[in-house]
Design a protein that fits this description.
RmlC-like_jellyroll, 0% helix, dTDP-4-dehydrorhamnose 3,5-epimerase, RmlC_Cupin_sf, mainly beta
């Protein structure tokens, strides 16, 4: 399987974010209501991941995710198994760090997984819907329907 650039998958956008440098610490923007990818606000939460662990696969069927790194370094993966998509069967990978500060907007129907590179890593998800467990699907690494990411790390 050949990896594509993250924003080459239909319904994924990678946005560079601004950093305001300060003597006592920086301000890192995550999302504003005026951003083109903002749909609505459902909830925001942090998800942590330990070094060497992979979280995923997870697919939201209705929700749009806006993922931003809080700290650490995370390798994000996306897989498109939507038969109607022009990027059906595509797998992508992107490394987000404090030096490569981006927001990933991931539309419904795309499988997502992420890998922690540092001792502790955290991402912020600003989601357009409140949490609803019936709205998402989860699969473990090694599931025969999805790529095994261990060979891409």
């Amino acid at each position: 399987m050949i990896l594509k650039a993250f924003d080459e998958i239909q319904d994924i956008t990678v946005t560079s974010l601004s950093i305001i440098k300060g003597l006592k610490g920086d301000v890192r923007h995550a999302m504003k209501r005026s951003d083109p990818n903002f749909i609505s606000f459902g909830e925001a939460y942090f998800s942590t991941i330990k070094r060497g662990e992979i979280k995923g696969w997870k697919k939201h069927n209705r929700a749009t995710l806006n993922l931003t790194l809080a700290f650490g370094e995370v390798i994000f993966f996306a897989y498109d198994d939507r038969r109607s998509s022009r990027t059906y069967g595509s797998l992508s990978k992107i490394v987000i760090s404090l030096e490569n500060y981006k927001r990933l907007t991931i539309g419904p129907g795309i499988w997502v997984a992420f890998y922690g590179s540092e001792e502790l890593n955290a991402i912020l998800n600003i989601c357009d819907l409140e949490h609803d467990p019936s709205e998402a699907e989860n699969r473990e690494m090694g599931d025969e329907l999805l790529p095994d990411l261990r060979r891409f790390i």
